[in-house]
Amino acid sequence: MWKFKTPGIPDDEFERAEKVPITKEEVRVIQISKARLKPGQIVYDIGCGSGSISIEAALQIESSGKVLAIDYDETAIELTKRNIEKFGLTNISVIHGNAKEKILELEEADTIFIGGTGGDTKEIVELCENKLKTNGRIVIGIILIETLYSVLQVLEKLQFESVDITQVTISKSRKTTTGTMMLARNPVTIISATRI
Amino acid sequence: MWKFKTPGIPDDEFERAEKVPITKEEVRVIQISKARLKPGQIVYDIGCGSGSISIEAALQIESSGKVLAIDYDETAIELTKRNIEKFGLTNISVIHGNAKEKILELEEADTIFIGGTGGDTKEIVELCENKLKTNGRIVIGIILIETLYSVLQVLEKLQFESVDITQVTISKSRKTTTGTMMLARNPVTIISATRI
């Protein structure tokens, strides 16, 4: 359970599994904010990993909304289910499979999150164009340079406006025997845009 | 008006004035998340500047809560008032004066935001220790190295736990005639902690 209204659940509140990525707290909070959520919305979380984005989105859209969390990795799906149970949520449906096929079957979305890895991001963005409602938001977390380039290229050709590109670099403190040092994390680029 | 539930109002939605700082969207969103807000809370925004943190906090704590926005700069106070009006909020009280004096008169807080400048931050943190309720949150945005050092020193001596130090560096894209470049902003360090 998360008893606050604001997003930003600490990473260690989530169940974790080896090799399943998590969108870390600060980057997650920015992604959730770029989505501009409100109660009742339909949200896809494509490449849900640990489910942290699904959980935070589900809390924002409340029980009148629905999150559809998709991953091709069975361990990620099981982990997302464990986190859904941990946070006591009933408005997330978990879908195991290839997003490029599964998306076609889904109802239209108000918001689509796309996870930051996988070589298919460009194709998934193209498919999402047809599944997003007018004024719907797409939020893409990107780690790879190749993905960043291909998503930028494809967004220009699709029906999106207000494209925002934000690179986020977070450092966190660690106590050493002699003082406090900052440990850098890798930069993440968040692209968000509005469906025309 | 902001019609979404999530924080993250774009910077250009706020009224601005020359020389009055604004906590920019992405850093603001992380600060709001670190505060862990919920409806009904009492929040101080010390050094409110443009009022962007006050506005976002007021939306999260709803009409049952109250934000007390303090600044010594009259232009900042007037600007905060204009933004309160623009966003149609009625749960923010604006206080013009020196925070070190004004804080003493205020009711106890659930959350205290402290702005990122001014050489008085250490003394204000000390005063805030006595105004924060048990389990209340303090969130300090820091730009200066000297402030970072002095706040870290003082927090160790006061009744705070779960001290988190997060440095945030944001870059935003700009279109040039030949492509898309990233423009770096200055790093901001956000210290947050819980009152024991």
TrEMBL record, chains A, B:
Highest taxon of the lineage: Archaea
Keywords assigned: Cobalamin biosynthesis, Methyltransferase, S-adenosyl-L-methionine, Transferase
Methyltransferase domain location: 38-141
InterPro entries: CbiT, Cbl_synth_MTase_CbiT, Cobalamin_biosynth_MTase, Methyltranfer_dom, SAM-dependent_MTases_sf
Positions with a binding annotation for S-adenosyl-L-methionine: 23, 47-51, 71, 99
Catalyzed reaction equations: Co-precorrin-6B + S-adenosyl-L-methionine = Co-precorrin-7 + S-adenosyl-L-homocysteine + CO2
Membrane-spanning residues: none
One Gene Ontology term from the biological process aspect of the record: anaerobic cobalamin biosynthetic process
Molecular function as annotated in GO: protein methyltransferase activity
Pathway: Cofactor biosynthesis; adenosylcobalamin biosynthesis; cob(II)yrinate a,c-diamide from sirohydrochlorin (anaerobic route): step 8/10
EC number: 2.1.1.196
Similarity comment: Belongs to the methyltransferase superfamily. Archaeal-type CbiT family.
PANTHER family: COBALT-PRECORRIN-6B C(15)-METHYLTRANSFERASE (DECARBOXYLATING), COBALT-PRECORRIN-7 C(5)-METHYLTRANSFERASE
Protein name: Probable cobalt-precorrin-6B C(15)-methyltransferase (decarboxylating)
